[in-house]
Design brief:
alpha+beta, OB fold (Dihydrolipoamide Acetyltransferase, E2P), five-stranded mixed β-barrel, 2 helices, 38% strand
Length: 124
């Protein structure tokens, strides 16, 4: 059996039976927020300082990283169905953190990442 085939089968097994698959920042390259547009549609570890945390409209939370909207370098979004998993989001302001997940394009064209689980945030 090829290694890639073995890893794929392991990943599917983990997803099906619901075992957590922990990935740490130490085992990956950590990017800063500058130049993230070059990493759109990639799973990345991104390091930045939380400049502002705000609740929007129907209950989604937005974290502005390395600057405040509209001049933030990076945006982190937590949609309402997942907010209950996170505690004290306002306390993150001023902290330098590593976020991991998929980097995608936000409506304003900049890079953003959607978080669903607090394990996607690594405190420095």
């Amino acid at each position: 059996m090829k290694i890639s085939s073995w890893i794929f089968k392991l990943a599917i097994t983990v997803l099906v039976i619901g075992l957590p698959l922990q990935v740490t920042a130490e085992s990956r390259t950590v990017l800063n927020t500058t130049g993230l547009v070059a990493h759109l549609n990639e799973h990345c570890f991104v390091k930045g300082t939380v400049s502002r945390v705000s609740k929007h409209g129907i209950g989604n939370w937005i974290l502005d990283i390395d600057g405040v909207y509209p001049n933030e370098a990076f945006t982190v979004v937590i949609f309402k169905p997942f907010v209950y998993r996170f505690q004290n989001l306002q306390n993150l302001v001023g902290q330098t953190l590593i976020f991991h997940g998929w980097v995608v394009r936000a409506k304003d064209g900049g890079p953003k990442m959607v978080l669903e689980n607090p394990s996607q945030i690594v405190v420095q």
